[in-house]
Specification:
Length: about 250
């Protein structure tokens, strides 16, 4: 087996043809490490604001990819919660303070809550114990609805969050179908599978000779709205017919 010197980037020794980056952090690290190897990213954030590319239509350099903007959907998600629990006077947003997007997610949720005239409690959790404490705070503040923005740690604690939301009878929304499939009330966000499929197509085009910098950064246009009716019944919620009519999937 040929030894690879640690001081050399792995792609210079192993012949990596394309790097796939699944977050702004990964994309920035890859971009800082090489200006030669093509990089294809997917992320929920705005890649221009994140400093990954300067423009979307012709990014130039060695970086391109897809943004599903799931981190920018708080207004729509809060609006859906408000339609289903219109009498809820206090909403909460659960964020991970270790996530660089926590402040942005909090501000977007606050703006959406302000527009609807409801109070918002920003609760933070970066450990399992923090999540328990956050739900105790929701009970204390009489939170009537919960927004759960995308976050790798919180996503890894899906079972705990779904269980606590059910235990304390708090209607909640997140961004991926995985959440209502696990028992949360609903989700609204872009289709991550479709985003990754499109990224795979870009990788294939690059491997056939196209330049990453010539491929426009694209924004996801396919959204999924999923409702779990079993969770709704457990929460004693009547989902308005208009909401059911626009749902892409209803889990019975």
């Amino acid at each position: 087996m040929r030894r690879i010197e640690r001081s050399r980037p792995i792609w210079s020794a192993g012949g990596v043809a394309v790097i796939f980056a699944n977050s702004p952090t990964m994309a920035r690290a890859a971009k800082a490490a090489t200006a030669i190897v093509p990089i294809v990213f997917t992320m929920g954030e705005d890649p221009v604001e994140e400093g990954i590319v300067e423009i979307l239509n012709r990014p130039g350099g060695n970086v391109t990819g897809f943004s599903d903007f799931n981190n920018l959907l708080a207004s729509k998600q809060v609006g859906l919660l408000h339609e289903i629990v219109p009498k809820a006077a206090v909403f909460a947003v659960l964020v991970n303070p270790a996530n660089p997007n926590a402040e942005v997610n909090s501000k977007q949720a606050q703006a959406a809550a302000d527009a609807l005239g409801v109070e918002l409690q920003v609760l933070r959790a970066s450990t399992e114990r923090d999540i328990e404490s956050a739900f105790a705070a929701m009970v204390h503040f009489r939170v009537g609805a919960l927004l759960n923005p995308p976050d790798p740690f919180l996503g890894g604690q899906r079972e705990q969050i779904v269980t606590l939301a059910a235990r304390h009878a708090i209607p909640a929304i997140s961004d991926q179908r995985l959440w209502p499939a696990a028992g949360l009330l609903m989700s609204y966000g872009t289709d991550r599978l479709e985003t990754h499929r499109q990224a795979g197509i870009y990788v294939g085009r690059i491997l056939k000779g196209e330049k990453a910098g010539d491929l426009p950064v694209q924004q996801s246009t396919k959204f999924q709205f999923v409702i779990n009716l079993k969770a709704a019944r457990a929460l004693n919620l009547e989902i308005p017919p208009g909401i059911l009519a626009v749902a892409d999937e209803v889990i019975e």
